[in-house]
Amino acid sequence: MASGAGVERPPSRPLVFSIAALVTAGGVLGTLYLGAWAFDVRRFSTHETRLARLLAHEPTLSQVDQAFKDEGTLLLGSAEGDAALRALAQRFARDKAAAVSSSGRAYPLTKAYLAGDMIYFIHFDERRVMCAFVIVSH
Description:
Radius of gyration: 26 Å
Number of strands: 4
Shape: elongated
C-alpha cells in the first residue's frame, strides 16, 4: 500500500484566506446594502409623515407657502392645468412624472417644493386648500 493513500490533505492556506476574504466582503457589502435600504425607507417615511400631518390640517396655499418659506424649503414651480402639470412633473419628477401627473390631474393647482433631498408635489383644490401630495427623491 502506498504511503498517504486515503489521507486527504487540508486545504491550502491561500484557498482558506481567499474564501474567508470573500465571505467577509459579502458580509460587509450585505450590511452596507441593508443600511442604505433602511436609511432610504426612514427618509421617505419621515417626509411622508410630515406631509400627512400637514394635510390633516387642511392648510391653504398661503399657509403652505409661508411655512415652507420660513423653514427654507424652496418653491421650484407651479402648474395650473394638465399641460403645465405634465411639464412640471417631467422637469422635476423624471421617472415618477406619470405618478405626479396622475395624482394631480384631479386638482387645479400643483406646486413643487425642494425640501432637502426630496421634492414635494402638493396639490390644491379650487379653494386653494391642500388636498394631496406626492414625494419624489431628488
